[in-house]
Design goal:
Elements lengths: L1 H18 L1 E7 L4 E8 L4 E10 L3 E5 L5 E3 L10
């Protein structure tokens, strides 16, 4: 019975670890928003910078400062 309880607890801890994530939203100068998503306690991190432009609407700025319109790709917003 004790071993079964340990296995169930380990499986629960593994499930929580696999689905754990946090998102931070920062409002930057010039109307830009930086969204940082961290998974696995900061081991895997995704950073996206988004800006609103009167010409293009919402655009994502990548690492090379290229502007990609968000209207041309799928975006998932989850809480």
């Amino acid at each position: 019975m004790g071993r079964l309880l340990l296995v169930v607890l380990a499986a629960g801890l593994l499930a929580v670890t696999l689905t754990w994530r946090t998102s931070d939203i920062e409002f930057l100068d010039g109307g830009q928003i930086r969204v940082t998503q961290s998974m696995w306690w900061g081991r895997q991190k995704t950073v996206a910078t988004v800006e609103y432009s009167a010409q293009d609407g919402w655009v994502e700025i990548d690492e090379e400062q290229a502007r990609v319109p968000l209207g041309s790709r799928a975006v998932r917003v989850r809480n």
